[in-house]
Specification:
4 copies of one chain form a homotetramer. Helices cover 32% and strands 23% of the residues of chain A. By secondary structure, chain A is α/β, with parallel strands linked by helices. The first copy, chain A, has a 6-stranded parallel sheet with strand order 3-2-1-4-5-6, sandwiched between helices. A 6-stranded mixed sheet of chain A has the order 10-7-11-14-13-12. Chain A has a two-stranded antiparallel sheet with strand order 8-9. In chain A, helix 1 (12-21) crosses helix 13 and helix 6 (147-162) crosses helix 13. Chains in contact: A-B, A-C, A-D, B-C, B-D, C-D.
Amino acid sequence: MVDVGVLGATGMVGQRFIELLDKHPEFEIKVLTASPRSEGKRYEEAAKWYLQSKMPESVKDIKVVGTDPSKVGDVDILFSALPADIAAKVEPKFAEKYVVASNASAMRMEPDVPLVIPEVNPDFLDLIEVQQKKRGWDGFIVTNPNCTTIALTLTLKPIHDQYTINRVYVATMQAVSGAGYNGVPSMAIIDNIIPYIGGEEEKIETETLHLLGELEEDKVIPAQFGISASCHRVPVLDGHTEAVFIELEEDFEINDIKRIMDEFQGIPQKLELPSAPEKPIIVREDEDRPQPRMDRDESNGMAVTVGRLRRDAAFENSLRYVLVGHNTIRGAAGASILNAELINEIIF
Amino acid sequence: MVDVGVLGATGMVGQRFIELLDKHPEFEIKVLTASPRSEGKRYEEAAKWYLQSKMPESVKDIKVVGTDPSKVGDVDILFSALPADIAAKVEPKFAEKYVVASNASAMRMEPDVPLVIPEVNPDFLDLIEVQQKKRGWDGFIVTNPNCTTIALTLTLKPIHDQYTINRVYVATMQAVSGAGYNGVPSMAIIDNIIPYIGGEEEKIETETLHLLGELEEDKVIPAQFGISASCHRVPVLDGHTEAVFIELEEDFEINDIKRIMDEFQGIPQKLELPSAPEKPIIVREDEDRPQPRMDRDESNGMAVTVGRLRRDAAFENSLRYVLVGHNTIRGAAGASILNAELINEIIF
Amino acid sequence: MVDVGVLGATGMVGQRFIELLDKHPEFEIKVLTASPRSEGKRYEEAAKWYLQSKMPESVKDIKVVGTDPSKVGDVDILFSALPADIAAKVEPKFAEKYVVASNASAMRMEPDVPLVIPEVNPDFLDLIEVQQKKRGWDGFIVTNPNCTTIALTLTLKPIHDQYTINRVYVATMQAVSGAGYNGVPSMAIIDNIIPYIGGEEEKIETETLHLLGELEEDKVIPAQFGISASCHRVPVLDGHTEAVFIELEEDFEINDIKRIMDEFQGIPQKLELPSAPEKPIIVREDEDRPQPRMDRDESNGMAVTVGRLRRDAAFENSLRYVLVGHNTIRGAAGASILNAELINEIIF
Amino acid sequence: MVDVGVLGATGMVGQRFIELLDKHPEFEIKVLTASPRSEGKRYEEAAKWYLQSKMPESVKDIKVVGTDPSKVGDVDILFSALPADIAAKVEPKFAEKYVVASNASAMRMEPDVPLVIPEVNPDFLDLIEVQQKKRGWDGFIVTNPNCTTIALTLTLKPIHDQYTINRVYVATMQAVSGAGYNGVPSMAIIDNIIPYIGGEEEKIETETLHLLGELEEDKVIPAQFGISASCHRVPVLDGHTEAVFIELEEDFEINDIKRIMDEFQGIPQKLELPSAPEKPIIVREDEDRPQPRMDRDESNGMAVTVGRLRRDAAFENSLRYVLVGHNTIRGAAGASILNAELINEIIF
């Protein structure tokens, strides 16, 4: 078993890490960090549990420590659920000694930090060596993309492999959990939509092209197509929905698109990593799916469900679809864990 | 005063007609029709009132009649809130004698039936003569577009007037009232989104180009750009939200787009029609508006609110925005009434 | 294995039966009935699946038959999810030959039909003999109470066993699933409460006293205390919440009440029936629990969670608490199945 | 015109004060206070407007000052929307010089501070003299009860006047706005109920008896019946719903109860105070009313709607009903304003 810790363990994503790591076949939680006011408390006292599953017995008695490299002791991997501003300050310090699998956005676009979806660009992990050499670290940081980007990029990958994408337009309908437990007041969202999520559109547009780009020597050359996003918060608890419009360079058959999505496999599937969904993309034919409440838990929240795949007759070589992905599992904690499983398999 | 009636007066849109016609300065409700099981009842007994305003005193004692031309007596204009299948059968019969201002989709795309938004294409009313001559009717039918189309087209009109639109992509987040009172079960939509609304995408794609087209002699030549829609139902009571992406042929300044939207006026504003909003489009600069709950009632539900107007750097000559329009006022009953007010002013 | 069928298998409660019976250790679904328009179709074609779990593979290919005793063939138990009016007509016909474990309200108050919660009044099953003799049936009908009643009565039972209850007041906050999939339009319940559920208050008041009554020879003498209910529909998907006020005859210690609830066990626990929760009542100490979304799935939806147990200082010998129970599991399908498991154990 | 100010003007209740005072026939807003970080800003910059009405033009340019008696200048009445802890500290300082009409709970139960609902206990204003004498103030503090208490007490008053109340049980279903804009996270309340609101049950139980008590010389003798509350937060934006069970000493006719509620009038109605609803209690006969979304705005949010008035056959001389009142209008800002209108009429 690999000993692991969770940085920022009391928040929404921190709790998802704990839920997913409980009974994990390879990783065992040894340390949990949180802000100073939780320090020294048993986890059960420090955290109000937000998830519908119960708090795992195994973490209740763990004594929470501060988010400080001197306090986490002898573990191998630290999963980071820290807010971006804190992550920017402390993740590099942790990386001097530890492997940091981070869900925070702070380091994602650093040229020597791998931003990885295991099914999409596992080769970017080669940047670890570059990073360690350049920074003189014994550990390293590997990051996963923003929640909305992960689901989108997973569905673009098989298309990008076989066709030339010219344009992507995406309108998101994002669950409130994406903003953290206290992020969206009920007064703001009952019977309402908020058509703005700070920084989200920029993340989608930048990270997606980065992930679908090429690693050349020690840097990433982003993919070259245009991508435009409009992001909206909706009264849904979990599960981001995205309406996607794509223009390709070449003509295509819609059934081919369905087939390549359905058959899509990545290295996690080949290696049978513990958290890997059997199929990263589930293609549904029902006219009214995917729906966030009905499809977010598909494959334990690790698969993206795609539906309404159809030609877009208004434009040449164009198609449309709708996707749903679980934003705090596949889009956050589960993404970091899958990265760590891959690292554990191929690097450790 | 012009004597009017409402066909299909007990449903959601029928009630909006009644609400908006109560105390109308030009129109006075004289007759209300409904299905056979309501026939003969006082309106107050026949209809369960769904709106937050109270049922107007003036209609409570009106005796509901069947939806049959022989029963509506001596009125001038009939507002139709009928379902499409019934409208297809009975609206032509009413039009033999009456002016029918219809919100139903049945006759919208008939070549001799004006599909009109008064601010956008009032000249299409010239088709009335064509229609009457061709069909031998003393009355006529005039229709308004689908709720989602009206809001979108109002915002496209000033752009279309000054620039060449190449592409429009629109993802809608539509309120449950659009499906009628019983249309969306709460089990289907609480904590959920339904990414499908039957026929809606086709209506948006067809009607918008028709409305922005040209009337040449006796037929409409649709506008020629591409438009692609993806429609979604969200847990919002009233007010459709639309995320719009546009590519123009020419370059533009974003402030010019804001200005032409803000300054946009149509014939209803010039004629000061009773239901005309002072400004058909309200442009907001706040980063998190428009929101359906906060903006749907703008200008008594007759204006469309636009926000997040911004360049789309991913593509040349491109812009994005979000709009909110009240689907059962500007998008339905209010649209038919504004059509009737225009007819009353320029034709009667 | 006992071969079973589900009457009314396509609705909300019918689907819960199927979900709970899938992989059941004692029961195996052999037949599914539905209304004529589903007859002859494979279940997968006949039913739109409403639950978040997936439709079990085992039922997809079962050919749906009409709800008619001549069509269900050779099975032992029929679970009834029929609407009350249909149940009234057909359940007696089925009972001529089959064991009917019914969730319908139609036959509950018939003097010779056992209305049973296995933890509360298993001895009422003695009425089966009375019923068979009186009606000349080879089969019989056993019923479970209304969803709200079951949860309430389970929590009253240990109190009733040790104290004399004088008064019970209960205000319910009931989930929309209780009205069936199409029962509550979203227009009715978003940002709203409906303070009326037809027949519900009467059911609670009648059934609870019946369940806590005594079987004397061949009839039930209801318990004698007063019970008053006020029922409300709230925007919650599953899980009924009930605020309970109780006046006892005797003084009590609040900790004794907690203890007797926590320690409460019935025959299903002693017999370790497959669907029996380890504890029928879960007592929570957190000040803000139980909550329907967080607690409805406790013990696979078969336990009732009680919280905020506190004295009621306004009145002598009085206490208050809040409970949550899953209305379509413990309150419907799960209740019938537990009845059948008990019958299977002690009668068959 | 009387010059007034609002203490704590940027929060939810502060905004309701501004909305209700805009265009008020007697009061004119001259000063707005807020926390230090808003000080010096124009109100439009300091406050994010939460209400569906628009921010009144008249306040946009008012420069916000700190919540400090030295800064509010020459006004007569200060409406307080301060949080309880701040109110406890500063309201007494303001009262040295100003009339403070407070919605805060801090001073409500002080023996010399009138806690008043104008329709219920206007005579408690006699305590003003006691207060001024005892504390040596030129101004004074008058308070209104908690939101839930006001609605409940208004409906109890006509019953209390004619009958002897023995018992009151009340279960509340309270809107999220009652906790302030950021008070209830959407993650906490979508598809959920929270069965706990800190301090609320105690306020209902204490304040109601105080309001229905008698002022004897210089102190209030509370009413003597028992009252027990259970409070729950529900996913509703505005409007508290309460299920009420009452036992009287005497027998009654249910129609008499309806009549005395319907005919109930207080001094605000007799004096025709500007904010007084024509009827404080609206009695509805529909079986499914009152509903918060449909009835909260009754009489501009100043009337309480009562429905489902029925005998409670389980207990002697008992009745039940459900009420809805607007928690931030009649239950907060509107309550303070009505108090001030009464003071302005009879004292100034």
